[in-house]
Amino acid sequence: MTALTANFITDNGVTMIDGLATGVLLFVIALGLSLVFGVMDVLNLAHGAIYLLGAYVAVALLGGGTKMTLLAFGGAVLLAAIIGGFSGWGLSAMVRPVAHRGHLDQALLTLGIALVVSDLVAMKFGNDVRSIPAPAGLDGSATIFGQSYPVYRLVVIVVGGLLAVGALYVIERTRVGSLVRASVVDPQMVSALGVDTKRLVTGVFAAGAALAAAGGVIGGPILSAYPGLDNRVLLLGLVVVVIGGLGSVSGALVGALVIGQIETLGVSLLPDHASFLVFGAMGLVLLLRPQGLLGKKEATA
Amino acid sequence: MSAIGADLKIAGVEAGYGGSTVLTGVDLHVGAGETVTLLGRNGVGKTTLMSTVMGFINTQSGSIHVGDEDITGLPTHARARAGVAIVPQGRRVFAPLTVHNNLRIAEGKHSGEWSLERIYELMPRLRERRTNRGDQLSGGEQQMLAIGRALLLGPRVLLLDEPSDGLAPAIVQQVMGIVRELAQEGITVLLVEQDLRAAFSVADRVVVMEKGRIVHESTTEEFRSDAPRARRLLGVG
Ligand SMILES: Nc1ncnc2c1ncn2[C@@H]1O[C@H](COP(=O)(O)OP(=O)(O)OP(=O)(O)O)[C@@H](O)[C@H]1O
Ligand SMILES: [Mg+2]
Question: Is residue A7 part of a domain?
């Protein structure tokens, strides 16, 4: 039994680490999606487009060069976060008028915005896949389980992990985080505490979008940048949020880690079913726990 | 008596849900530091009136003043800052937050003489349960939490909607004891209560609502002295 486990790990360890990197990245991306749905009851289908903006910030800063310095790359992350933050702020203002008009209206509006953004990006940068190399100094490889493995992905695990821990800390431990969680369950009562919930929602929107855009840069060396990537990221984000439970932060973390493994380990073990695995997992969760793994029952009612 | 409380003036207020009008012209004045209990059968609009004062629903016409300030058109959070706090029907504590965090998010520079420490002194049960989630509390504990949360807002006007609902008699007495203390602090209290004995034990005055308007006002003593009239007004046997 232990020998079997050991074998499994040497055979698949690298794939699992890859899954962890994907999972951590997915969490950074999906958190905003989940929280915006939680506090505003808005399904923001432009979330993938925000990620795309971030990825193309990296493309633009790369210019004609082959790779960025570490400092430039860090600057790209920061710039993307700022652009993402402002985009989220603008989005929340655009979405507010339809916030109480049902999910179909919101979906149409945010999807429309997403299409415009990705078209503008395609006009500016073309339809080709643009690769974003890992920054200088992090572009080497390490040896894990006897295999060579890109260092950058390990860095993604660490940096993404730190972002995830930071976000969880803010949500779970600070006063603002408590207000956000309270707003997920009863925004009206939060406003009765003297809190301007519109500003709170705008803040959540902006912070979530900043994370997604930063994720676009950080994930660049793994996922590259191309028109259509926004849809893939959005879809994965939605699956993560549905699996974890809408509005639940720890749920988003669990969902992201699960999907990360399915995307890598699952696909490597069951290559013939690759395209179904993610949605199969989502269907299974929805069948067994419609409110998501860590969601509250009321959340889906 | 201290000058904490402000008077609450409700004049000709009409309000309701969607297209329907539930409040059909409410006139009610609660003096500064006074405790008034609002009685009435189920569905006459008591909670609707509380929600209208808090700004959960908009007034269709009429005006609401707290002290000199006209709060009629203000959003809920601005009304809270003007000194209105609510202990709503059903308590509405934040289920995913601990007792401590439920209270902490209400605390701020507006808290005035109220502090977390003082709430825990007033309601020691909350201190014992401070690390429990809101949905792990008993009904009585939730009620105390909702009251504590409201007090940390440093209210000048406190709206209490059926605080005794679902509580054991001993707990009702305890909650009413707290309400009495608040009244002594000088806070203006508007109380909706089905438990008449509890209501009479704290109220200076009684007002009765029927079909969305106030149909009777008197002192508590006067109201109690005419039992047949009370029965007729409240429709109780
Ligand atoms: N959210 C709502 N949407 C639509 N109608 C509502 C809503 N809440 C209450 N009503 C209606 O408004 C009327 C007054 O309800 P309200 O809750 O104010 O009564 P109440 O006097 O507080 O009753 P109770 O003693 O049962 O708490 C009722 O006819 C009720 O059906
Ligand atoms: Mg009621």
Answer: no
